[in-house]
Design brief:
The chain has three domains: 45-212 and 439-486, BirA Bifunctional Protein, domain 2, CATH 3.30.930; 286-415, YbaK protein (Alpha-Beta Complex); 517-610, Rossmann fold (3-Layer(aba) Sandwich), CATH 3.40.50. 26% of the residues lie in helices and 29% in strands. The chain is built from 15 helices and 32 strands. Strands 3, 7, 8, 9, 10, 12, 13, 22 and 25 form a nine-stranded mixed beta sheet that branches. Strands 17-15-16-18-21 form a five-stranded mixed beta sheet. The protein has a five-stranded mixed beta sheet with strand order 29-28-30-31-32, with helices on both faces. α1 packs across α12 (478-489). The longest helix has 21 residues, at 162-182. The protein is globular and about 95 Å long. Its main location: cytoplasm. Homodimer.
């Protein structure tokens, strides 16, 4: 079998999962962002696919397979051909017709249903596929977490009404929770952002990246070590140093309540807001010079006022139109919230030239006082609680103090626009917000009629009227699951040598049901006829009992075999050694490091008991 293990971690890997997948012989890079899944990896992926298929069968989802090479005409219909961005692979055939490599398949599935389904009586329809997708990432990185070709499960549902969509959306949420639970993952379902998919309601399923500071959770101790306390401090420090040298994988920050069920992506997270109803005497508006003070912190220090008493004024272009955004000085704008609220296709910070046109001043001195009524001013809801605030005076080097809402400036709308902070109270009041890094492994969307309207996908309803089909979209990152699994199940295996030295190495501790094989069967000496005979006998018995067995019959030193076994991380190792003639073998459980010697006749029952 092709299992090209390496003695050292690859130097170009930045996250643990990438390093281990390469070192343990699971994957190999073919070109930047494009990988081959070698036999071990492919077996893990197939097991995960089978878990998905079983759960989707339960909710009536039917598997099909669409082409990866797509005509650009469909994407031109939906409008995404020009707006998707540079990640879209565009190509032409010999007839000079435009094609793309599919990064996702909303348009394809919409066209299939549009051309085949004409009546509401044929709905709902629930279909999915598992196939490679293609996105021309500018900087592919972190192994399988950010690639140019990746394996994805994408599902689509089609409905005649929103009640039906809601029911299927909930079915998929349950199915996803079952899938990731069966895969042994620590995950959270969080409020997500639809982004380029065009979804309204959406939930992301995030695999939590483990805390690097809880060292004991990363260690597996050999039978020679009874407690972590036995390990010398310098060895533990070296392990900590190596552990923290890897980047924390996860493209998103997850916000969750420590005392409730609330969880959201940082881009969507909010916290409890209570409007301050206490009265503050408004002071007289005054313009003061603030030379060389441009940032909120500089202005706060210069005027000797708390940052919380300042208001920052930002300018954005929403689909080309200027929008002024106000936040309390200690808050940061959440551009995803702003873009979603505005319903903008494009949102970007304005240039300093734009600021001069709107405010008559440069950055550092902008404020809401005296702006034209034609300018839309949106404020975060916290701004409404700030009395006698400091704002820019729209004159370089000057600020107003003691500004107050309605008297000195107007606001069109108050909405939640700020980025939530760790330690704030959860929006439901149940606990405080905690932050963690997470890897997105699944995402479900209520698309509504975003694609059916643009692509004229309609059915006749019960009254004979042509109405747009209502859609949902449901994705799982299949190949990135490999990385997510290793981020959570990578371990450091520590053992004590006969000389009393301590050594450690990285290992994989696969969750039950996803390891490429159940048992690693290792004859120490392939020239020992008794050992080989017993190995053949045990292999047959294990397979008859339903175990998947990888037998290492290479003519290699025992140390090489054991090192590879520790590295690739199969749940159970059975060593056939010097006591083979007596029918005695050694059984080692990967997850605990527990090792025992047993008679061959007890092997099956022992593995079932120890590996529960």
């Amino acid at each position: 079998m092709l299992i090209p293990t390496l003695r050292e971690m690859p130097s170009d890997a930045q996250v643990i999962s990438h390093a281990l997948l390469v070192r343990a012989g699971y994957i190999r890079q073919i070109s930047a962002g494009i990988y081959a899944y070698l036999p071990l990896a492919n077996r893990v992926l197939e097991k995960f696919k089978n878990i998905m298929r079983q759960e989707f069968e339960e909710i009536g989802a039917v598997e099909l397979l669409a082409p990866a090479l797509l005509t650009a005409d469909l994407w031109k219909e939906s409008g995404r051909y020009d707006t998707y961005g540079e990640d879209l692979y565009k190509l032409k055939n010999r007839d000079n017709s435009d094609f793309i490599l599919g990064p996702t398949h909303e348009e394809t599935m919409t066209a299939l249903v549009r051309d085949e389904i004409t009546s509401y009586k044929k709905l709902p329809l629930n279909i999915y596929q598992i196939q490679p997708k293609y996105r021309d990432e500018k900087r592919p990185r972190y192994g399988l977490l950010r690639g140019r070709e990746f394996i994805m499960k994408d599902g689509y549902s089609f409905h005649a009404n929103y009640d039906s969509l809601d029911a299927t959306y909930q079915d998929y949420k349950t199915a996803y929770e079952n899938i990731f639970s069966r895969a042994g993952m620590t995950f959270k379902a969080i409020i997500g952002d639809g982004g380029a998919m065009g979804g309204k309601d959406s939930q992301e399923f995030m695999a939590i990246t483990p805390d690097r500071t809880e060292l004991d959770k990363w260690l597996i101790l050999d039978k020679s070590i009874t407690s972590v306390d036995e390990i010398p401090e310098d060895v533990l420090e070296n392990i900590k140093k190596e552990l923290t040298s890897w980047l924390v994988a996860g493209e998103d920050t997850i916000v969750f309540a420590d005392g409730g069920d609330y969880a959201a992506n940082l881009e969507m997270a909010t916290s409890e807001f209570k409007k301050n109803n206490s009265y503050t005497e408004p002071l007289e508006l005054e313009k003061v010079a603030t030379p060389d003070a441009k940032t909120i912190e500089e202005v706060s220090d210069f005027l000797n006022v708390p940052v919380e008493s300042t208001i920052k004024t930002l300018l954005f272009l929403s689909d080309g139109e200027p929008v002024v955004v106000l936040l309390r000085g200690d808050d940061e704008v959440n551009e995803v919230k702003l873009k979603n609220y505005l319903g903008a296709d494009e949102l970007e910070p304005a240039s300093e030239d734009d600021a001069v046109k709107v405010f008559g001043a440069h950055f550092g001195s902008l404020g809401p006082v005296g702006l034209s009524d034609d300018i839309r001013i949106i404020a975060d809801r916290v701004v409404e609680t700030v009395a006698n605030a400091v704002v820019g005076a729209n004159e370089d080097g000057f600020h107003f103090i003691n500004t107050n809402l309605d008297r000195d400036y107007k606001v069109s709308e108050f909405v939640d626009l700020r980025t939530a902070k760790e330690g704030e109270v959860s929006p439901d009041g149940r606990g405080t917000l905690k932050f963690a890094r997470g890897i997105e492994i699944g995402h479900i969307f209520k698309l509504g009629t975003r694609y059916s309207e643009s692509m004229n996908a309609k059915v006749l309803d019960e009254n004979g009227r042509a109405v747009p089909i209502i859609m949902g979209s449901y994705g799982i990152g299949v190949s990135r699951m490999l990385s997510a699994i290793l981020e959570q199940f990578a371990r450091v295996y520590v053992e004590k040598t006969p000389k009393g030295d301590f050594k450690y190495n990285w290992s994989i501790n696969f969750p039950a049901g996803l390891a490429p094989f159940d048992v690693h069967l290792i004859p120490v000496n392939v020239k020992d006829e008794a050992a080989l005979a017993l190995t053949d006998e045990l292999e047959g018995k294990l397979m008859d009992a339903g175990f998947e067995v990888l037998t290492d019959d290479r003519n290699e030193r025992a140390g090489v075999k054991f090192a590879d076994s520790d590295l690739i991380g199969l749940p159970v190792r059975v060593t056939v050694g010097k006591k083979a003639a007596d029918g005695i073998v050694e059984v080692k459980i990967r997850s605990t490091g527990e090792t025992i010697e047993i008679n061959k006749d007890e092997l099956i029952d022992t593995i079932k008991i120890l590996n529960k």
